[in-house]
Amino acid sequence: MKVEQIYTGCIAHAAYYVESNGEVAIFDPLREVQPYIDKAAKDNAKIKYVFETHFHADFVSGHLDLAHKTGATIVYGPTAKPGFEAHIASDGEVFQLGKCQIKAIHTPGHTLESTTYLLIDETGKEHGIISGDTLFIGDVGRPDLAQHVIADLTQDKLARMLYHSLREKIMPLADDLIVYPNHGAGSACGKKMSKETTDTLGNQKKTNYALRPDMTEDEFVNELLNGLVMPPGYFPKNVVMNLKGYESLDEVLKRAKTPLSVTEFEKVIQQEDTLILDTRNASDFSAAFIAKSLNIGIDGSFAMWVGEMISDINQKIVLVTDSGREEECMIRLSRVGYDHTIGYLKGGIEQWRKEGKPVSEQSRISAEEMQEMMTSVDSVLIDIRKKSEYDAEHVEGSINIPLNRLYQSLDQFPKDKFVILFCAGGYRSMIAASILRQNGFTNFVDVIGGFKEIAERTTIPCSEYVCPTTLL
């Protein structure tokens, strides 16, 4: 039996490729399925099953396209009611894959249908568990997501289900089993995930707070629910796509791969319902961009911030990208359900400028320049990191407006004072800068390198959280 984790860092997602004697099972595949098909072909193997651990919220799974292209059977755990043909496994059902076996273990809690799959090798030895969002390394799945789709499934109900799933289904398993989770650090599906992406179950029993054997049910619920923040707005929409079905990625890309000349691009962006999404890095964007563009760099947590900052999953999008990265951007948009890219600027910003079209610029400053500016300019410091980051350490006197609350907080940005904007490293601050520019703000700069550079290169005082700071 061959087990391969296929990890995609930008969305902290792990799919799994399991092969035995010419048969393959894919667990929780990404939207783009050709790499799995190619891998199976290289192994002279046939994809027999597509196993889903649950209806995912943070990405659109590739189960439908993969089943359509290979004839594989889609498998969900008990209680799942998908809007397409699938095998609904019973608790304890065993699936034969080549010479190995896969046992479905119903583990509700993250969602009602959440299922863990036990891998049993050719000798009959239990090898590991593909745990989905039931058990992460260092954490467990948050139980508050399903209520955004089914109101009756409260976070308290699911948390109590998860307590019993862990103690009655997972913890009795052997310590030497390998835990293969669906996500790692950076995913919004948990709050304390490790940067490690596999571990032994025995070590998790020793180190994972949620597996402490002496925890009562109430203690577990309190610890699990404490500190949860609102999930990204696109999560419920992705659940619905995964549950009901979606358009084939091939069709989405066929539509998106429309090269637009400068003249065509101008006509398209004059339509009020079309968004210009510029995916270049912050420094290139700041030097020259088309007015009203939203900058979300492809080399950061692109999909997550698209989901956070573009509220309408059906938003029409036209792209400005680095040359040769157009399709990559389209695929990564579709991973989180943004399927309405209608084209891209052929030749990029260089062609736009070559044809004499106007560009905007956004000023940026170094941390050292920020220190000088604070003594000479009547300025307001706005830190757009997460509240947890701000609470851990922040510039004294700064105001915390997390990026994902920016649209709701625009009235907190003064127009009669100079604003100095920063995040952790400069990626998020340029997203914020592009949004401020869209909304008519011009009297601000962002800090290159963000808080990291401020802390390392200046004598600006920083401290732990004391009390909320506001503009009032």
Highlighted features:
single chain, 472 residues, alpha/beta, Metallo-beta-lactamase, Chain A, Oxidized Rhodanese, domain 1, 3 domains, 6-stranded mixed beta sheet, 16 helices, 24 strands, 22% strand, disordered C terminus, Rhodanese-like_dom_sf, MBL fold metallo-hydrolase
Give the CA-CA distance, first to last residue. 63 Å
CATH-defined topology of the largest domain = Metallo-beta-lactamase, Chain A
CATH superfamily of the largest domain: Ribonuclease Z/Hydroxyacylglutathione hydrolase-like
Query: What composes the largest sheet?
Result: 6 strands, mixed
Question: Average pLDDT, to the nearest integer?
Answer: 94
Radius of gyration: 24 Å
Supply the CATH class of the largest domain.
Alpha Beta
Roughly what percent helix? 25-40%
Please count the beta strands (DSSP E, at least 2 residues each).
24
Measured by DSSP, the beta-strand proportion falls in 15-25%
What is the count of distinct domains?
Answer: 3
Number of helices: 16
Q: Return residue spans where pLDDT drops below 50 for at least 5 consecutive residues.
A: 465-472
Shape: globular
Structural class: alpha/beta
In the CATH hierarchy, the architecture of the largest domain is: 4-Layer Sandwich
Write out the strand line-up for the largest beta sheet, numbering strands in chain order.
1-2-3-4-5-6
Protein name: MBL fold metallo-hydrolase
InterPro entries: Metallo-B-lactamas, Mito_Persulfide_Diox, POD-like_MBL-fold, Rhodanese-like_dom, Rhodanese-like_dom_sf, RibonucZ/Hydroxyglut_hydro
Pfam families: Lactamase_B (PF00753), Rhodanese (PF00581)
Keywords: Hydrolase, Metal-binding
